[in-house]
Every structure is written in C-alpha cells, then in structure tokens.
Specification:
Elements (H helix, E strand, L loop, with lengths): L12 E2 L6 E2 L4 E2 L19 H13 L4 E3 L8 H12 L8 E6 L7 H14 L6 E4 L8 H13 L5 E5 L3 H13 L6 E5 L12 H8 L2 E5 L10 H4 L9 H7 L3 H19 L5 H12 L4 E3 L6 H8 L8 H14 L1
Helix pairs in contact: 1-2, 1-11, 4-5, 5-6, 9-10, 9-12
The structure holds NADP nicotinamide-adenine-dinucleotide phosphate.
NADP nicotinamide-adenine-dinucleotide phosphate binds next to helix 11.
C-alpha cells in the first residue's frame, strides 16, 4: 500500500449494503481544519507534519478510512488529509475517504456544483462515500438524493450517506435512492456512552431494518470519556468554550460520569489499554457490524491508542456493566 504499511490485519464491516469494507474504527478529520471558521472554536490548528503522523499511526494501527468534510476549514481538512496520504505514499484506492457536502443555505444543485472542488481538494484520492452533512438544505431530501444518485451513475462516488438525519429523514433518503436503483449506505450521528439517543429515537432500529451503517461521531464525547478531565479538571479550562459547552463539561458532569469512566479505565487496565479504547470498543461491540466509530485526534499518541480499539474484545458481562453505568451517567 505505502510506506505506512499495515502492521496488522483487522476485521472489516460492510458499509451498509455497498461494496465498501471499512474497519469499525476510522479516523475523524475535523481536527485537520487548520483553525478555519467554526472549527477554531473546537480545535487548535495542527501542523501538517503532525497530521501526517496522525494518519501514519492510524494506518499502522489498521484503520482503512477517513472522515472529512467540505465544512471542516472550507476544504482545509480535505487538503490536509490528501497531503498526509500522499506524503506517506498511500496508493489512491487503497484507503477509503468519506466526505460531506455542506448544505447550509444551499439547494441540492450545489452538491454537483461543489463536487469538482471536493475532488480537487482530495486529489488524487477519490471520494468513496459522499454524505449530506446535515438535514438543513433548502431542497428536499428527495432532490438531494437525486443529485447524489447522479454522482453514483457517473461513478464519481461509490456510496451515499447522510448525517444528523432523523429516522424519518433517513427513510426518505433511502426511499429516494431506491427509486434510482441505489440504497442509503450510512447515517453519521452523535453516538457515545453519554449520548445514546439513537438507541431510542428510531435511528438505530431503522438502520438495522434498512441495512444502513451508523457512523458514530464524537465517540469519545470529545475527550470526556478518556478520563483526562477527571484526572486533571484543570485541562477543561484549556479547551474552547464551544467544545466545553458541546460536551457539557462541568464539575457536576465530571462527578456524574466518574463511575463510568473508572469502569472504562479498569476494563482498559486489564488489557494494557485506556478508557478511550474501551469506550470505542463498546460502541462497536454493542452493535456488531452496525456501528463504526470515527474518533478524532490532534496528537499521534491519541490516534495510536484509538486504533488499538480495533483489537479490543469485550465480554458480554463487561458490555452489560458499562451499559448500566452509562445509562446512569447519561
Ligand atoms: N457529522 C457531524 O455533524 C460531525 C460532528 C462532529 C464530529 N464529526 C466527525 O467525527 C469525528 C470525531 O468527533 P469529535 O472530534 O467531535 O469527537 P471525539 O472523537 O469524541 O473527540 C476527539 C478529541 O478527543 C481527544 N482525544 C481523542 N483521543 C484521545 C485519547 N485516546 N486520549 C485522550 N484524549 C483523546 C482529543 O482532544 P484534544 O485535541 O484536545 O487532544 C481529540 O481531538 C470528527 O473528527 C469528525 O470527522 C462529525
């Protein structure tokens, strides 16, 4: 594949009913947005050399796909990802790239209009999965899916996904694609041990019925589930207010979630791992074949640890114990 050769063989899952096989752990690339736009309220800019290192250790850990978006720094994340893959000599087609169209204030026609810019930013790596970032377009879901189906017809992409879609919106997207002879491959939603809404709002059960993959974003609750803020609450003051607010990072939430995080740390310690790997593995193992996670990282050491979740297997008892503590902490 490249200089960054895989050092291990890991199991993969099918992305929906598509032909694409993804590792249950991918790499989220919002962190590569370069401090442009709203991203700077969440992440400090990461130098390109470090981005390349993050991508390298992820590949070495077995990760075979990357999630980026037009909205992440208006193309900065896409360019940084492509730059890292190229610097590592990764052959186009040997890894998968999931991209997202930015729908704010736009009609469906802009999916086709902005696609050449996505190709340019990711060049020479193709967009394998193209997703609608949020259900906020000025056009109907049907129209958006019709343009996505055109991209499939033209072999410009291999699968279509949505993100932040409710069960009803997901079903509408799926039906619109079926009319064109395709299927919805994925719905990317927030899903972690402190936010399990998709288990009760119909999204997860519909995903099972339609054979749609759930791509879990913010799977570490933006760091809260790793235990770093519990160990050193002073770290919370160093991160941006938007992220603090997004995660609900307060002294109370740290106390409420402490038993859960301690259980994750205990389960990790038995395997020479940390809370992060267990939090990621729980999402995957609780929903075998249905859920893939895309933790983000601004440090190579975090990306290396997160990829190790690919090798973690939890027992039925461990899954249940964490389940109970998570329900109380939610
Ligand atoms: N579709 C959507 O609307 C949407 C929304 C949000 C995210 N996403 C996607 O999902 C990806 C992941 O979500 P996210 O970035 O919001 O949240 P996340 O993956 O839960 O958290 C990422 C952050 O957690 C910290 N972290 C990661 N691994 C760690 C470890 N092993 N130990 C300690 N700390 C660790 C790092 O914080 P520091 O940087 O402070 O070290 C990292 O930047 C994004 O990159 C993006 O691709 C999509």
């Amino acid at each position: 594949m490249s200089n960054a050769k895989k050092t291990m063989t890991v199991k993969t899952i099918q992305l929906g009913a598509s032909d694409l096989s993804i590792t249950p752990v991918g790499l989220g690339c919002w962190q590569f947005a370069g401090g442009v736009g709203f991203s700077r309220m969440f992440w400090t800019p990461v130098p390109q050399s470090k981005i390349t290192e993050i991508v390298r250790v992820s590949l070495e850990g077995g990760v075979n796909w990357f999630d980026t978006a037009e909205a992440y720094g208006r193309g900065a994340s896409e360019r940084a990802l492509a730059g890292a893959l190229a610097a590592l000599d990764v052959a186009p087609g040997s890894v998968l790239v999931a991209d997202k169209w930015q729908p704010f204030g736009r009609t469906a026609r802009s999916i086709a209009r902005t696609f050449p810019a996505r190709e340019e930013a990711l060049k020479p790596y193709p967009v394998d999965l193209h997703q609608v970032h949020m259900p906020v377009s000025l056009s109907s879901v049907e129209k958006q899916m019709s343009v996505m189906a055109d991209l499939l017809d033209e072999n410009k992409i291999k699968a279509v996904g949505v993100s932040n879609f409710s069960a009803a919106q997901m079903e509408a997207a799926h039906r619109a694609l079926v009319k064109r002879g395709y299927r919805l491959a994925s719905n990317q939603v927030r899903y972690h041990l402190l936010d399990r809404c998709i288990e009760t709002n119909g999204v997860l059960s519909l995903a099972r019925d339609l054979d749609v993959t759930i791509i879990a974003y913010s799977p570490l609750a933006q760091g809260l589930l790793t235990g770093r803020f519990h160990r050193d609450p002073g770290q919370a003051r160093k991160i941006g207010w938007a992220r603090r607010r997004n995660v609900g990072l307060t002294r109370e939430s740290l106390e409420r979630t402490r038993p859960l995080v301690e259980a994750l740390e205990r389960a990790g310690a038995e395997r020479g791992a940390g809370a992060a790997e267990i939090a990621l593995a729980w999402l995957v193992e609780k929903n075998p074949g249905r859920v893939a996670v895309i933790p983000g990282a601004t440090r190579p050491e975090h990306a290396r640890l997160n990829a190790r979740a690919l090798g973690v297997t939890l027992s039925v008892d461990e899954i249940a114990r964490i389940d109970g503590l998570s329900a109380k902490a939610c």
